[in-house]
Amino acid sequence: MTANVVVLTGFGVNCDRETAAVFEMVGATAERVHVNHFVSGERALSEFHILAVPGGFSFGDHLGSGRLLGNRLRFGMREQVRTFVNSGGLVIGICNGFQVLVKMGLLPGDDDVSLEQQASLALNDSGHYENRWVTLEFNSESPCVWTNGLERIRVPVRHGEGKFVSSASLLDHWDNTGQIVVRYVDPDTTYPSSSDESLPYPISPNASMRNIAGVCDPTGRVFGLMPHPEANHSTWLGATWTRELTASEHGEGEGLAIFRNAVDYVEKNLK
Question: What pLDDT, on the 0 to 100 scale, is given for residue 247?
């Protein structure tokens, strides 16, 4: 069975083409669909196995990054989204897509898919847009199907509002349930070394609480992160490949495994 992926487009989303491309690289069929087609009922999420909300600047970041597109999904597609997740569908939000999922309440989420917001993405402590490479470390005990088997990857961040914030009690809860999936980490340390202790800038590009770069829902099927794994789908896209590789060593980039994990999960578990 081939995994069917819908990549959401519209209103300033601008990473939809490369997001669709990486899913196709790992064997899925990907279609870019404007959010209005779902709101109007012309299309349905039930046609797909995976929903991807890509990066960009939806609605020009007015009222905060991801807020308006999040409201579009939360109120215009509410029952579609809840049914899709409860039926076993997979969801990923990348950068602005992560902001959307957090602000609509799908992430970190709850067992009832109540779509009640519990966290947010605030302005970077640096006070400006960050466009740089970071090192990510994954939680090996997380239920997240997207990150199964991953330890560390290097990918870029491209955001002005990437500081993950919530209450201490909720952060403790998500830590205990394994929903804190991925954190920024010092690349000069050995695996595993992620911790709650705040990392200095620019190792943590935004001063996220507990160095959080991404989280999942309780099922592990809904996942979001601020960095861009689709931007490192080939080795020649890496920031240091000219110092690390010869021409004959080029191949798959570090970010592609995230998308392959999702497609493999669909092929093994969904119909």
Answer: 64
CA 53, CA 97: separation in Å to the nearest integer? 5
What does the alpha-carbon distance between residue 126 and residue 182 come to, in Å, rounded to a whole number? 21
The angle that helices 16-25 and 256-269 make with each other, rounded to 10 degrees, is 60
Contact 214, 224 (CB under 8 A): yes
Facing residues of 93 across strands? Answer: 53, 224
The answer to whether residue 262 scores a pLDDT higher than 70 is yes
According to CATH, the topology of domain 4-269 is Rossmann fold (3.40.50)
Q: What is the pLDDT of residues 160-187, one digit of tens each?
A: 999 999 999 999 999 999 999 999 999 9
Paired tokens of 49: 């196995």
d(CA 129, CA 205): 10
Separation of alpha carbons 230 and 21, rounded Å: 9
Average pLDDT, the chain: 95
Residue-wise pLDDT tens digits, 44-103: 999 999 999 999 999 888 888 999 999 999 999 999 999 999 999 999 999 999 999 999
Closest of 157, 160, 175, 84 to residue 127, by C-alpha: 160
Q: What is the pLDDT of residue 251?
A: 87
The Cα 143–Cα 150 span in angstroms is 12
Where in the chain are the domains?
A: 4-269
* Residues with catalytic roles: 95, 228, 230
Whole-model pTM?
Answer: 0.96
Cβ neighbourhood burial of 132 (10 Å; 0-12, 13-18, 19+): exposed
Question: Could you give the CA distance from residue 247 to residue 58 in angstroms, rounded to a whole number?
Answer: 38
Closest by alpha carbon to 77, among 1, 176, 157, 8?
Answer: 8
